[in-house]
Amino acid sequence: MGKILIFFLLLFFSFNLSGCETAIFSTLRAELEKIKSRLILRIAEKLKQFEKETLFSLLVSNTFVNTFTASIFSSLFSSFWGDLRIPYGLKQFIDILIFTAIILVFGEVSPKLIAVKYPLKMLSINSLVVYPFFLLLKPVAKFIPTFSFKESDDAIGDVLDEMEDLAITSDPALSSRISILRTKVGELMTPRDNIVALKPTDTVKYFLEVVGRYSYSSYPVLDGSEFLGVLRVSDVRIIEADPEEKVERFVSECPAVPVNVLVLKVLKDYPDDAFFAVIDEYGNFVGVLTLWDVLERFHPAPPVKWIGKKSLIVSGDLPIHDMELILRKRIPFDTPTVQSLIMELTGRIPDEGEFIEFEGIKFEIIEKEFAKLTKIKVELT
């Protein structure tokens, strides 16, 4: 009975370790703010912060657990089939066949499929199970030869370190701007849920109406969740096209960049491009990055400005978690930013001068730039 309990416990660990391996790399850091439990949020942030050490811990732990599980299963299998007159070779073959099926279903395929579909939920569940393995093996990861984890981005990081050291004493602002180049694409991009996108079946007439409303220079075209390409306002063919013609004819390609790559590397590899599709490690479209997003971070506006005891001005990209801390008030919505909360409440991007009231908080849209709410007055009522 004891061996059976140990076997199922090991399967449980295998399920969680395998699921976490997929979930941790399918979740953006900004999405972690949706986790309601502060304890799990802190653990998930730590796992995300030390991705390489986390991956090392998961791989080593999962290998150990699966090996141990195979040993226990073999012992149970031998006990069950011990009295039957079956050739030893056939017995071993059946043992391996059954265990492989079990570990594939419960330790590989199922957890990974669930993690791909529900990465944040899976990460929330797995974090508490995985964290002890991470704490145990993190110190060991430091002794792994550097070539195991060395990336081309490390060399860029060394250059940035030297640049910061030179700038920090003479010009703090310059040092700050250099440090921004450490930022990864996923931290600057506009998430898929917040972009202004078109469908391939939309007409040229509708596209021109969208351009008049938002005034962007490029618009992504999505077929469901699949990224097809981009429509550029500068495309002469669109201007000369029949208003009822479908926009899919005018879709052009644009560079696709990984969500976890450094912004500096993108600027270096694509010096002549200003619009990028952002994809995760599975090739799924997760958002867009524009040159404007990068330049905006070089001259950031203060995120919060108090204008009274109970009122303040915030930017639409202020994280909800930060606003909860500032207002000392829990907001019962799983949205990453203030703008996404307002869009969730209204079902659209509101215009300047509009008021939205919610749970004792009044939002007033002060300034809007295209599809971004740049200044929002927040008042406790």
TrEMBL record:
Q: Answer whether the UniProt record assigns the keyword Transport to this protein.
A: no
Give the keywords, sorted: CBS domain, Membrane, Repeat, Transmembrane, Transmembrane helix
Q: Which Pfam families match?
A: CBS (PF00571), CNNM (PF01595), CorC_HlyC (PF03471)
Q: Which domain of life is it from?
A: Bacteria
Q: Which residues form the CBS domain?
A: 189-246
Q: Which GO terms describe its molecular function?
A: flavin adenine dinucleotide binding
- Keyword Transmembrane present in the record's keywords: the answer is yes
TM ranges are 55-81, 93-110, 122-141
* Any Gene Ontology CC annotation: plasma membrane
Q: Output this protein's name.
A: DUF21 domain-containing protein
